[in-house]
Amino acid sequence: MKIRSLILAIFFQILLIIAMLAYALMPLYLGKEVKVRVNLYDPRDLFRGNYVSLSYDFSNLQQSKFDEKTGVEIYIYDRNFSKNDEIYAILKQDANATYAFDKFSFTKPKDALFLAGKFDGYSLVKYGIEEFYMPTKKAKQTEREMMDQDVDAVAVLMVMDDGRARLKDIIITPNGKKRSNDENFDENGYTDDNESIDDNESLEELDKNIRLQDQR
């Protein structure tokens, strides 16, 4: 009897882990693809592996960006505003087929695309899309690209109707040139043209110079 109970307990725990994993990965398979601008930093960590830490326009809590319809005044140290309180970042589509941050709301939006986040207790809102892990080779390439002041980065999110989101990919375009597997992205935004980069030679020369500097 004890053995049977132990087996059932282990089986239940396995099912629970599978259910939690499926719930976490659901946005990647059932969510809507949304591209947003993103800032990158910390491409590699000795203890945690190869990853990029990300921040967005909707990461920092701003009083001026709250939905006026809520009628709620937000103060970071207000007793009524606690850690892990749910906050929704409403997004709107821009001219480049990407999405931009519009405003925050305490109430779940009904007719808008939004991300569901939680207040960290200080001044940030966390959505579970703040880190992106990648292979070593790509992490090193990202590190070099981040040194370029003209780097432009876009995060590809998969967003569910309830605001849950997962990070699918990062598209980096240094100096406005295409440097990703996304064939629909160029320096002017997203387009349906499948044109290749005209200055491949100059880009190869730039990479060669960077490698020479690294060797020194």
How would you describe this protein?
Keywords: Membrane, Transmembrane, Transmembrane helix. This protein has about 220 residues and is of the alpha+beta class. The chain has one domain (about 30-190). It is about 25% helix and about 30% strand. A hairpin with a 5-residue loop joins strand 7 (about 115-120) and strand 8. It is globular. The model is unreliable at about 175-205 (pLDDT under 50).
Shape: globular
> Measured on Cα atoms, how large is the radius of gyration?
21 Å
Instruction: Tally the structural domains.
Output: 1
Query: Can you write the helix and strand succession as a string?
Result: HEEEEEEEEEHEEEEH
- Distance N to C terminus: 69 Å
What amount of the residues lies in strands?
25-35%
Structure class:
alpha+beta
Contiguous uncertain segments of 5+ residues: 177-203
Give the strand tally. Answer: 13
Total of DSSP H or I helical runs spanning 4+ residues: 3
**What characterizes the major β-sheet?**
4 strands, antiparallel
Helix content: 25-40%
Mean pLDDT: 73
Which helices and strands occur, and which strands form pairs?
Elements: H1 2-30, E1 32-37, E2 39-41, E3 44-45, E4 49-55, E5 86-93, E6 99-105, E7 113-119, E8 125-126, E9 131-133, H2 136-146, E10 152-159, E11 165-173, E12 185-186, E13 189-190, H3 200-215
Antiparallel strand pairs: 1-10, 2-4, 3-4, 4-9, 5-6, 5-7, 7-8, 10-11, 12-13
